[in-house]
Amino acid sequence: MTKLFTGVSAAVTTPFKNGEVDFESMEKHLRYLKENDLQAFVINGTTAEAVTMSEEEKTKALELAMKVADGDIPVIAGTGSNDTAASIAASVAAEELGVDGLLLITPYYNKTTQAGAIAHFTAIADAVNIPIILYDVPSRTSMTLEAETVAELSKHPNIVALKDATGDFAHLSRMLGLVDDDFAFYSGNDDIALPFYATGGHGLISVSANAIPKTEQRLFELSQSDSKKAIELNNLRFPFVEAMGSDLNPLPIKAITNHLGFGDYEFRLPLVGLDADIVKVLVESYEELQKGLTAE
Length: 296
Prior knowledge:
alpha/beta
């Protein structure tokens, strides 16, 4: 299979209003992202607070994303779970809706061994006929996929990529040396996107792209063509990106999507919003970046 996308996608936020998903604001946000160079929608992931959403809400979110994408960019559904059977059911349902690919997190809480991870992902991949991106995020799952495990899984025709949120460049280099060239690696860490590209990564599944999609895609493109300008842009964007990682995701980024008019600053428990003074600092960081981009 060819790569699902190259460049920057967004782990899209879910706006809530009075406890319900605000699909009107979500559609407005998705259209903004598409119009500003985003290469793919990733729906119902961690940033979307999908674990607090009903199956009906997640289905509607995917349907809305496919409507906005309109075949121009891929829609990738987060269907991972620590329950293999539940993940298979969600993955099959997403495929039947017509999504372009799946994002599958490594099992968490009960976790698993490397052999168990291979069996888990293989069982899901065997049940569908669309591309799968594995998601390795040890800060949330307390487990890491070993390079040899990724290499073994990459042999499955439906497993085409890895979202790597380990922050370990030596690990990335090991994996790059063990897989075929058509297997893609996407960073899951906005703050190290540029060195990830320089090491051989193929793109980014981004939180900050919810607010600055054009800037994130431009950084990727410059990383492929003009390293000096890429470094300059990375230095300009970095204070904002660092601010977006200053607290638990998606608390900071939803302060900015709210500032941009893409839904209320609202969460479902157990998440609660940040204090107003912290939100003020986050918004100021965004505005400073915009001034810098305008002055370029």
